[in-house]
């Protein structure tokens, strides 16, 4: 048996402390990296959720307008009213067929949207309720209820609406899901004087939401700077969300008004990452 000198013991202790500190630092950095990735994933999810929701709202407007026209023959999507066109209450079933229809900005929809109307949406207190029947957009299955109510004019004489999103679940081809419930106010800020032209419409979105991410973790969302959506652009162009998950906050900034899919994420440590609102699934 050999003896270890005191000085050697000190060296061993110092080395052990150094290794422990190094491993602790590596573990901490690894955890921080995982957490940052979670925030980036959540930002992409919220960007996708808002993008698909707004895209479908514009699509429904277009389909209602088209559904009121007299057309003798039509391929998909087919539009079927439960009562004579122009009478209310009424329900419009928009059927994109089993293989899907490519629409504006390349979105492919299949399945059915069920749109119930108490009156024309331009009427104050009218309600539009949208549900989904085996409905997909870009291979993402969409479920849930979206209720839009015309609340009249605000103090600036701009029409505004209340939107309630309930039990909305997106299921991606990978099998992963995200869920969302929201209460929003939507104000039309441009295009009011040209009701027959939809592409010049601009909307301001405000409100909050709760939900769960791909990992099943709960989060909350607050629109801290109104989101701006233009009917002639496939993405939200401006505004900011503040999201809270695991007792930490992250912000998603949609930009300065330019029509593109770029956004920035500010992480809890203050670092900023650029992301694209895209098909990440």
What's the structural blueprint in terms of helices and strands?
Blueprint: H1 6-67, E1 78-81, E2 90-95, E3 101-102, E4 108-117, E5 127-137, E6 140-153, E7 159-171, E8 177-190, E9 202-212, E10 218-230, E11 236-245, E12 248-256, E13 262-266, E14 272-276
Antiparallel strand pairs: 1-2, 2-4, 3-4, 4-5, 5-6, 6-7, 7-8, 8-9, 9-10, 10-11, 11-12, 12-13, 13-14
Number of E strands: 14
Distance between the termini: 62 Å
Q: Tell me the number of helical segments per DSSP (H or I, 4 or more residues long).
A: 1
The residue fraction in helices comes out at 10-25%
Task: Spell out the helices and strands N to C.
Answer: HEEEEEEEEEEEEEE
Low-confidence stretches: 1-7, 9-35
Residue-averaged pLDDT: 84
Q: Give the domain tally.
A: 1
**Broad shape:** globular
Radius of gyration: 25 Å
Structural class: alpha+beta
Tell me about the largest β-sheet: 14 strands, antiparallel
Per DSSP, what share of the residues sits in E-state strands of 2 or more residues? over 45%
Task: Please tell me about this protein's structure.
The structure is a single chain. The longest helix has 62 residues, at 6-67. The N and C termini lie far apart (62 Å). Strands 1, 2, 3, 4, 5, 6, 7, 8, 9, 10, 11, 12, 13 and 14 form a 14-stranded antiparallel beta sheet that branches. The protein contains one helix and 14 strands. The model is unreliable at 1-7 and 9-35 (pLDDT under 50). It is 22% helix and 45% strand. The chain has one domain (6-276). The protein has one helix at residues 6-67; strands at 78-81, 90-95, 101-102, 108-117, 127-137, 140-153, 159-171, 177-190, 202-212, 218-230, 236-245, 248-256, 262-266, 272-276. The protein is globular and about 60 Å long.
